[in-house]
Amino acid sequence: MTFRRKIMIAYVAVTALMCVITAAGFILGERTASSFRELDRTQDILTAIARLRVGLVDAETGQRGYLLTGRDIYLAPYMAAADMTSVEIENLDRLLRSPVNLEAMAEVKKLARLKAIELAETIRVQREQGSAAALAIVNSDRGRDTMERIRTILSEIDGRVSDRRRVAELESNRARVTFEISALIAVATLVLFGGGLAWLLAQTVTSRLASLADAARAFGFGDRTRRASVGGRDEISLAARAFDSMADLVQRQEGELTLQRQRTSAVLDTVAEGVVVVDKDGTIYEVNPAAELLFGESAMILRGRPLASLFPRAPISVEQLAAQPVRDLRFTESCVLSSDGERPVEIAIGRVAGDGDPLFVCVLRDITERKRVERLKNEFVSTVSHELRTPLTSIAGSLDLIGAGAAGQIPEQAATLVEIARKNSRRLVRLINDILDVEKIESGQLMLDFRRLNLRDIVTQSIETNRAYAREFGVEYRLIANDAEATVYGDSDRLTQILTNLLSNAAKFSPKGHTVDVTVTRDGDEARVEVRDHGPGIPPEFRERIFQRFAQADSSDTRGKGGTGLGLAIAKSLVDRHGGRIGFETATGQGTSFWFALPALQPVGALPHLENRDGAPVLVVEDDEDVATLLRLILEHAGYSVDRVADLKEARRAVRAKRYAAMTLDLMLPDGNAVELVRELRGSPATADLKIVVVSAVVVDGKRELNGDAVSVVDWIAKPIDPVRLLDAVRMAVAGTSRPRILHVEDDADVARVTQLLLRDVGDVVAAPNLAAGRAAMMAERFDLLLLDIELPDGSGLDLLPLARTAQDRPVPVIVFSADQVGEETARAVEATLVKSRISSDELAQTIQRIVRSAP
Which of 435, 439, 395 is nearest to 418 (CA)? Predict the structure, then answer.
């Protein structure tokens, strides 16, 4: 039986008992009320009888007083008593109901009328005949007999009524006692029934609920084996069974979680990388044994410490940690503070997905051994390369002399062997040179001598230099060039090295008797060189790694062509250093076309005369008289007002005495290094915004020395001076647009940092991690370009396009740089769309440079 049905039965039983008690009480109450009404009625009858007696006596007394005195004053009591007698007779007639009393009451009324007549008669006789006649009537027995008869009848009525009253009193007392006893019985019944019901509830509900509550309390305190074990088929038993089922499920899931936690802990304990879990404030929450070993501290000591305290330079701030998205881990190099000093590591930080306060996982990979191996390898390669270079040069030179007959005529077979040795020695020399070049490029030690060059002349010289090599393979070079001047700013030797690599590869892979076409063109702001062969093409599986070091297609035909596998890697690095792009187009069986493009310079002709009515003042800091004169003439021809000083002391005095719009600066001055002057100027509020154009023969060294402060320089122009580039730099400086400002809206912190480093020589990059920050930046500042990701944590980056068109006095160019392709409508609304992972860093930088330069 369900608990609900039990409650309903108990409710019906209580209701029925209450109805019975109420009915019995109503009946007893009616009986008691009837008894009390009867008592009241008998009391009224007795009172009326008494008043009637009094009235008759008073009437008779008033009559006698009048008869004796003859005074009318006695008539007033007589008249009042007569009226009262009439009233009381009527009351008695109304109150008496029994037939005996009614008959007696009829007799009383009759006798009362006679008595009233007799009294009235005596008074009339007194008035008419005198007292004697009246007294004669009074002395007769007629009046006395009437009065006695009335008294007798009233006494009989009084006796009967008194008997009835006594009976009524007994009945009322009995009814009251019965009612009180019944009330006591009803209360006792209710108390007993309520107690029984409470006992029943205690047995069937309360105790079972207490048992269920005890089980829940014990389960909550960790006793996972505790169960309710409540019998029955009502709701409480159903709740108990549901609780037991839930307890079984929780116990099973906790067992699974414990097993999973143990497995996870075992994995973390055995993983080679250090794992550090931190909270949103950057405080260490947990570490694994590998992290303990890495830091040289126990987990107990490490827990609760700030993550930043374990690094000489914090890899990420608390603000950046809070904005860290949930994504795949990406490793970057850093250093940690260990008990035995600094250790190089690779670190990756990712947010742990989940509700509540976020947690972050830092994975630390100790790369101490790898760095040591790389250092040993580099030292070994450098030592071997340098030690082999000298003897190989001697061997190759000796073989050349022997082959040329310097040692006399040698047999034909010996000449063949000498030629084989000569070719392989040259191959070894090229390999060593390539290895050294790669090392210089990677270490940043490769120095480039940038000059204004005609790229067509470099191509022509390279073709002539490599023509003999091509003829060994039965191949000829053909130059195709348009009339446009392809002038670039570059290193002649390194450009020749790039071309030599492309030309030699084309010759090696071209069929005998074919021609390699070399094209030089000017395409907008770029000068482009293309080398096309008619060979077998590049295998598809090799195309993605063709610019990697020691990369060669895995085929016998390719390996048989010789080569180090470093040429294209070096070519790409050199093109990158020139601010250019390199790529290829190929089709299997139809040949390959390698190309590279460099930023083109304006042709040298008559220098443009800029009408500068204000004559913006420019300070030339140059100790060489001829160079200073040349700079002055170029700038004055363009309309600028020029002051010239020859050393640092005069330069400091000049900038304090006058405010200049721009300054050209030679780094090598007689009284010191001008790099310190740059730092002084940037540190002073009066000259912090002075635009500086470096014109020096040691621009590379100056950049390296200034390091991060190099961005404060408008341009670095190497001597000999390119007048057009000089005027462009000064024009930008005077106009206040020395470096473009680029707003990069990107939620991935790693992509934002890499892009900022990539574009450090292009412009100043301001990073915005979400849509709201990007919108706020555009409203607060002026930008020359918007680099935009579409998928942002708080919306679509495309929502910024209307703002890019209206936030400034001119539309801001937009480049969409996202992981997904965009639709045609979006592509038409922006200047360029670039897909992440499908565009190289060079192409990104070149695209941004092109759009910034072309912006109004």
Answer: 395
One-letter amino acid of 518: V
Beta carbons of 342 and 336 less than 8 angstroms apart: yes
User: What whole-number distance in Å separates Cα of residue 689 and Cα of residue 620?
Assistant: 17
CA distance 49 to 160: 12
What pLDDT does residue 362 have? Answer: 86
DSSP for 537-604, written as a single string: ---GGGGGGTTSTT---SSHHHHTT---S-HHHHHHHHHHHTT-EEEEEEETTTEEEEEEEEEBPPPP
Q: What is the dihedral of CA 179, 181, 185, 188, to 10 degrees?
A: 110
| Token pair listed for 3 | 């608990």
- What φ, ψ does residue 592 adopt, rounded to 5°? -135, 145
Torsion region of 314: left, alpha or beta (phi above 0 gives left; psi -120 to 50 gives alpha): beta
How many residues are recorded in the chain? Answer: 856
Distance separating alpha carbons of residues 636 and 382, to the nearest angstrom: 50
- Paired with 371 in beta bridges are none
Residue 766 backbone class (left: φ over 0; alpha: ψ -120 to 50; beta: rest): beta
Facing residues of 274 across strands?
Answer: 364
Residue pair 143/84 in contact (Cβ under 8 Å)? The answer is no
User: For 680-730, what is each residue's pLDDT tens digit?
Assistant: 887 787 887 788 888 876 555 555 555 444 445 656 665 555 566 666 666
Token pair in block for residue 383: 């030592």
Distance from C-alpha of 728 to C-alpha of 695, rounded to nearest angstrom: 13
Assess contact for 661 and 736: CB atoms under 8 A.
no
Query: What pLDDT does residue 856 have?
Result: 54
End-to-end CA distance of the chain: 89
CA distance linking residue 664 with residue 631, whole number of Å: 9
**Element at 159 (helix H, strand E):** helix 141-201
CA dihedral 651, 657, 663, 668 (to 10 degrees): 0
What is the C-alpha to C-alpha distance for residues 207 and 157, in angstroms, rounded to an integer?
71
Q: What is the tens place of the pLDDT at every residue in 732-786?
A: 656 554 467 888 998 888 778 777 766 766 678 888 888 888 888 887 777 888 8
- Better pLDDT: 677 or 843: 677
**Adjacent-strand bridge partners of 361:** 277, 350
Please enumerate in sequence order all residues whose Cβ is within 8 A of that of 715, keeping only pairs 6 or more positions apart, or say none: 693, 694, 725, 728, 729, 732
**Residue 737, SS3?**
coil
What does the alpha-carbon distance between residue 403 and residue 401 come to, in Å, rounded to a whole number?
A: 5
Nearest alpha-carbon partner for 634 in 697, 726, 742: 726
Please answer whether residues 460 and 479 qualify as being in contact, where contact means their C-beta atoms are separated by less than 8 angstroms. Answer: yes
Query: Locate tokens 């008043």: which residue?
Result: 51
Assess contact for 501 and 567: CB atoms under 8 A.
yes
Question: What's the rounded Cα separation, in Å, for the pair 634 and 727?
Answer: 8
For helices 492-509 and 455-471, what crossing angle results, to 10°? Answer: 40
State the Cα–Cα distance between residues 241 and 88, nearest whole angstrom: 84
Can you give the pTM of this predicted structure? 0.37
pLDDT: is 440 or 471 the higher one? 471
Give pLDDT tens digits for 172-226: 777 777 777 877 887 787 778 777 777 766 666 677 777 878 888 888 887 878 8
Alpha carbon distance 203, 11 (integer Å): 17
| Cα three-residue angle 703-448-532, rounded to 5 degrees | 130
Give pLDDT, residue 842. 54
